[in-house]
Design a protein that fits this description.
The chain is an all-beta fold and about 130 residues long. Helices cover about 0% and strands about 50% of the residues. The model has no long low-confidence stretch (mean pLDDT about 95).
Length: about 130
């Protein structure tokens, strides 16, 4: 079993920045890809970003490309999401997830992920 614990959410003004962290523990491996998704009230869960074992392989949703950066520290089993130039529409619960598949073509699909964190709230005020 794998446990994922997110942190770093909060309230920020539009244009500001936040950094989310997700620490993995349990039967995990630094070779497993990890991702971030978000869900706003009344909306479906949306892919934000994903990263493979090497930080050279990253994927982003269109709505965050150029503003968000995903990275990982394999020694700490932790993945980060640096969020810059935040907008009110970025307001959502952000979830960290881990997949045991290495198929790069499914990284944007939430159904490909095996383990999920509890989520952390990000609120961007206008």
């Amino acid at each position: 079993q794998v446990q994922l614990l997110e942190s770093g959410g909060g309230l920020v003004q539009a244009g500001g920045s936040l950094r989310l962290s997700c620490a993995a523990s349990g039967r995990t491996s630094s070779t497993y890809p990890m991702g971030w998704f978000r869900q706003a009230p009344g909306k479906e869960r949306e892919f934000v970003a994903a990263i493979r074992w090497s930080s050279s392989f990253t994927y982003y949703g269109d709505s965050v490309k150029g503003r968000f950066t995903i990275s990982r520290d394999n020694a700490k089993n932790t993945v980060y999401l640096q969020m810059n130039s935040l907008k009110p529409e970025d307001t959502a619960v952000y979830y960290c997830a881990l997949t045991t598949t290495q198929d790069m073509f499914v990284m944007r699909n939430q159904n490909a992920y095996d383990f999920w964190g509890q989520g952390t709230q990000v609120t961007v005020s206008s």
